[in-house]
Amino acid sequence: MKPSKQTLLFLSLVSASSAETTHLKPLLVTEKKEVASLTSPTLQADRKELAKTPGGTETIDPERYLTGRASTMADTFSLSPGVIAQSRFGSDEARLSIRGSGLQRTFHGRGIRLLQDGVPINLADGGFDMQTIDPLAASHINVWRGSNALSMGSSTLGGAIDYISMTGLSDPGGSIRLEAGSFDYLRARLGAGFHEGNRDAYFSLAEQYQQGFRDHAEQHNQRLFGNVGWKVSDQVESRFFITAVNTESELPGNLTKAEMERDPSQADRSFFGAQRYDNERNYQLFRIANKTAVVSGDFKVDFIAAYTYKDLDHPITPFVGVIDQLSHDSLLGLVFSHSSEVMGRAHQFKSGFYFTQGFTDSATFANNFGRRGNLTSDADQTATNYEGFLEEQLELGYGFTGVAGATASFNRRENEQNLGAAASYDRDYQDFSPKIGLRWDAENYQIFGNLSSSYEPPSFSEANGALFPNKAQTANTLEIGTRGTYSAFRWDATLYASQIEGEFLALNNAVGTPLGTINAEDTIHQGVELLGEADLLGAAWNENPEHRLLLSGVWTYGDFKFDNDPVYGNNTLAGLPAHVIHGELIWKNNLGYYAGPTVDWVPVGTYIDQANTSRADAYALLGFKFGRRIDSGLSWFVEAKNLTDETYAASTGVIADAKGLDTRNFLPGDGRSVFAGLEWKW
Predict the structure, then answer these.
(1) What is the pLDDT of residue 153?
(2) What is the pLDDT of residue 11?
(3) Which of 353, 313, 293, 305 is nearest to 329 (CA)?
(4) CATH number, domain at 500?
(5) Which of 315, 371, 495, 551 is most exposed, with minimal Cβ within 10 Å?
(6) Helix H or strand E segment including 8
């Protein structure tokens, strides 16, 4: 593979900038100091807050992923235990799963609450789009795995991910970042923030283009994120958030394993394939949200409102057609929190209520080789949700803190079929999901555990037909873990086990007849989420040494299986690898320079079918990155990925039974590639 023109240009610029910095004074890299905001918490404040949760949580500093290409969710979450993000073809579109959430879904996420600044961005029926967020515009990212997201009002199996935006308070000044590299990848972003008196503002404007490693995989995105804050008084602050997204993505489709091994860069060229029928996923989205915070002593109330407009144009297979959906989603929310003492013991109480409603005009047209034909179906879909939650944390003494909480949900899915074979329906779902946990805090570490339940009503895609309507998916989860630091070491380790009823899976019956996506009988999700980091030069984490040699590793283990199913017995659930390992050995110094290898390893193949007759192969990918990051001025990076040019399946489809045949269910990962970037901050 020859480096692209963009890569050569960036390498020459990086070399020039490196040559100009041969005589520099030592630079002490410290966490940036941020001005307090009532509506947008700082990274340090959120890290402290999430550490109170007796379960798997994480606050991600963007400095972790800005040392290389920061494009896909696979880039963003590579060092996040428990979070599996598989880029489908090197694009933003990914398969995102936590603890096996949305196991059946290989696109357009489900089973996780995705938020921006504490405001849910999922559509009312539960689905979300990866292109709606941009990690380059985030001050930091908060992750709650599983039912630990109860304090965010989420009751799903996967938990919640919250992208906290930069503001004029947290990030005054400006920045320009350019990334370029293989497969004609180019990403440019301009951001700027300012504050004066009691007002502040921030905007981020990004343009991204890539031809893609595979044929028919071109992607073109434009994204605008902005927010304006007004501190009415010391007790009241209001902030408006604006998002505008235009995204156009060609879809290369799935290959057979033989096709992938012969030429992983090809698109699905079969008779009914993605290239012949010009499969794409394009949409425009506009979102406006407001959060107004009112503080009085130990009390705080957040008033939340949001509106989202989305227009989807989605040509796929000739059997489905061209999906055309126009959605209008609204949200109102109220979150109340109180922190004080009860009988001399610290306590923290949080409760809230969300009302969301979405209206979708869902139409399908015949796919005439990428162009719209006759209208084949039309429906008016309405999703309505009433969700309440509460959580209490109480200091018990001797380092122990008890946590108890619950969510209550009422959800309605209405489908009025105007044209087509599908039936109209109006279905209600409700649930009460409690949680109890215990945390013990020592000086430098914690030990925690919790018992919780989760609940997820079906989206319109999982609602199923009139004869066998799907019920909600529920689960009970037991979790224990520990996190902390000791000298040059730090860790985050969690073990969990979930017993699930009614998991949404596409299955066959005993005679092999496809049933579509239905509620499976009992299934089990259990696993280990482990992060370990060590400075091999021996410096403690509270020191600022001249050099560090950091060995970082993440191991996400998932044992997902049927539980004595009448058809599939105790088979492994298809779709996700049992082991996902990411490691880095990075040298850093106090001038901001860094360099070192990276590795991604899936040591055991992944089943593509519930009958366990076909699987993707194991693989290992070697990378290397080097560069320099500083708080202001010029930063740069060069990153090489898949240096051995491994042919592998980055993700797969999920079917009931492949019958041992080589079916069209493999999505090849990118080949050998090189990316480079420059970032100027002032």
Answers:
(1) 83
(2) 43
(3) 305
(4) 2.40.170.20
(5) 371
(6) helix 5-19
